[in-house]
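FAQ: What does a multi-protein file look like?

Like this. Sequence, then tokens, then the next protein.
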Amino acid sequence: MPAPDPDLDWTPLVRGGENFSIHRLVPVDGGLVIRKGAETWVRAAACLVIGTPTLGVGLMAFRERPSCSSAFTVVFALLFVFVGVRYLLPKAVRFDERRRLVRIARRDVPFSTIAGLQLLPEAISSTNRVTYTSWELNLVLKDGSRLNVTDHAKVDQLRAEAAQLSRLIDCPVWDHDRR
């Protein structure tokens, strides 16, 4: 397996990350796609079930008698609805074996332009304490640029998916912890 370019950037491409498996690699006719995991759907539903009725109640209360508490309820509910909707937004990544390209964020990337797959950690902290590690899987193109495929905390799952993609694309996996 060829070593990565020594100048390869090992800082996270996408800041933040989840402490659960937000996406999973799924076989489809002619390739593989990134799809929402079951835990993502559960969290999205929980946020929307809490946020939507609370937003309705908060808006009615604010309309009847505007106050700081009713405004706070509306803002609180909007945050829940926003997070729920964010979880539902699709991650548009498709690895097309027949066409030998990756469709990622409305961009077609030929397999022949991919130098490798990069797996790297990001320590997620709150108030200067590391609370969990989110792992990022990136495509590294031959020109040195990187494209994010997914990121979440299930490193064993990501390593298995990276190995599967490596075989499909015919490129190496560069794992931060195994350099």
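And here is the next protein:
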Amino acid sequence: MSLTSTPVVAPATLVDSALTRGDVDPDPGAQAILRTAFRLLKPDAALALAPGERRGFDEYRAQIATSFGMIMASFLLVATAVFWPTDAYIFADYPDVIDAFRKWRTGIGVLSALALVQFRYVPVCRRHAALTLSLFLCAGGAVCGHVLGSVGSGGAPFYPASYMLPLATVPILINPLRRTLACVAVMLSFSVPFCAQFPEFLEGSYFAPAMLVFHVFTAGASLIVGHALFVLIRANYAQRLLVEAQARQLARAREQSERLLLNILPPTVAAQLKEGAETIADAHEEVSVMFIDIVGFTRLSRSSPPGAVVEMLNQVFSVFDTLVERHGVEKIKTIGDAYMVASGIPKADPRHAARIADLALDIRARVASLRDPLGEPVAVRIGAHTGPVVAGVIGRKKFIYDLWGDTVNTASRMESQGLPGEIQITAELAAELASTHCCERRGVIMVKGKGEMETFLLRGRR
């Protein structure tokens, strides 16, 4: 004999199969009622949370329960204090009713104040807010049952309505199984004291079958409404998770955009563009500009594979980028194998000349350890000058931060007409570096577009 396992079928699926076979009346209304009933009885599988989300949902649910409990307790406490003085006037001819109201308001007021204190100052009550609120509701039901039972036949008409509020509020806060248990507990917490005070309720016309049916329907309606509210809370939590995930994704995208923008533009210039500036042009009186060029790059690019040439450029320029950031100067752009940097922009810097000189010396020392695709040491020509420039951003697309002026042209000429492996600077820059660096006079050379100029070679730091 072999044993075979029977697959578990969801209740809603069983209903659909029965309807298909014709075992159930195919009336559309009946179908809807049956499907709704089975869906309400089945677990919340469609709203199942991932293991990592369960704890967050429980905390979210506890927050809702805490807020609801504090609101309800505050309302009852205020209502008790406001309406208490009116009992003597409204029920002046019914001393028994006044005494019952006095007991009821005292008990409800004490429970409301105690609930407020518990929810506000006791963390364990906030973590288990649903259980705490259920206990307070049971205590409130007991107070109501005891007071109405003491009134006797006068309290019997209020029996069905007295615990409708607890039955309607408990389902909002706890899962389906605990919700059912809580509803039953609240009903018993009221009924037992009520019947103990007024045993005649179990006899005669008071204990009518119609009243029991009414109670059952009231509890059932509360459970259904509570289930719907529970589903709404879970759906709201899922929506909250989605919004938080979208917010994190948006923040990451914005951070990435900011990072890309700052890789292209200085922070102050990027801030101006984000604020809506269309054209940015600032004059700077004291700026040091430097150009760096790889010696023999044209010959190298002809005799080496393109991929190897690009890889070498990336390696060399990555070294330059690291040193530029270390020395606190601004990379402007690359033009082919030429690399342009400036110091003293976009913010003025009294050490602009010293910074550019230190960077030039470090670059020359660092590239000596690099090799080109042919295995030869990489050599650079470096030229620099100091003076006034205009810096800014122009254009609408693919804009860059650039410099203009005679200082830029002169620095470019210092590089293009310099010596391999040397740092050629102008007399103006050498004068700025006289107290911090050693400069050797090269002599007067003919500079294209400038005529004769006296130039110096930067040797090192003093």
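Q: Is there any per-entry metadata?
A: Some entries carry free-text notes. For the entry above: Strands lie at 280-294, 330-335, 338-343, 380-393, 401-404, 423-426, 437-447, 451-461.
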